[in-house]
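To close the section, here is one more complete example, presented without commentary so you can practise reading it yourself. The ligand is zinc ion.
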Amino acid sequence: MARDLVLSFETSCDETSVAVIENGNKILSNIVATQIKSHQRFGGVVPEVASRHHIEQITGCIEDALRDADVTYDDLTSVAVTYGPGLVGALLIGVTAAKAVAWAHNLPLVPVNHLAGHIYAARLVEPIEFPAMALVVSGGHTELVYMPEEDKFEIIGETRDDAAGEAYDKIGRVLGINYPAGKPVDELAHQGKDTFKFPRAMDSDDNFDFSFSGLKSAFINTVHHADQIHEELSREDLAASFQQAVVDVLADKTQRALKEFPVKQLILAGGVAANKGLRERLTKEIASFKDTKLELVPLSLCGDNAAMIGAAGEMLYRHGARADATLNADPGLEF
Ligand code: KG4
Ligand code: ZN
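Output:
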């Protein structure tokens, strides 16, 4: 079989990434230039700073991706790029670079939804079996996505306010933890106990939606109140209590969704999918769904990266997705 080689681009937030993917599921290279240090002193991603970094990094990332994969432009079959959702100025850099490469080398251009990319990261480990369900949890999204077949994505539940990762980052700031706070809070949580019993919003509601802003406020109020009365609270217990509330709601809603939409595979994807507590909990609970296999995206592919965009891009290409030089960034893109 001829080699299908996708050159893929991801610049929706604070990682500049370019990858080469063979036949949709094999990573030949995956260059990720992170900007986290530049954003840390601001406590979060500054869109203008992100765009400037992407401009500085993108050509070097393309060169490194081709060199690491040991291929040239002439070997490529297509170009895939994230065109939304994300920060408009950041997305535009990847979209512009991808269009330039596609035009200069006469290659088809495939537009990719960032969330489809997170889900299709699973394919880089094992083929996805359909129907499938994905719990996508990241800094910008918390969604339950039902996929009856390969290129069909139906959002059956989503957050009404903050995304799970956003809540981690915001409560992390109150604990004096730098952005992004997810991983350090996860580590603290493993040393503490759920003593605060924070609210589990919408947990018993008859839908698949989420809400994390009440939990975030309860956490912040608890810490501020303790500060006012000069009471020292255990950071470990605070983190454990917060994490337990997040994991409870995510796991409960996912289980309920699986009962209504039986699937062959449940995929846990997105930056927050790296969370140890969430991985452990889903592994335990999905075991009771005999016909559903749990696919945990490997830690190295949970955060934003272009390999996942290439994996989704190859699938979308087969289903006829194409863009031309008029492709624009779509910051609010939905499935
Ligand atoms: O998918 P991602 O890299 O970027 C977006 O598309 O948003 O996700 C980044 C988010 C951040 O909010 C970060 O704090 C969170 O993922 N995160 C975690 C963990 N590792 C990263 N959240 C909880 N536990 C973790 N271990
Ligand atoms: Zn992401």
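Once you have examined the tokens, check your reading against these statements. Residues 114, 118, 138, 270-271, 304 surround zinc ion (ligand 2) (CB under 6 Å). The chain has two domains: 5-120+302-318, 128-296.
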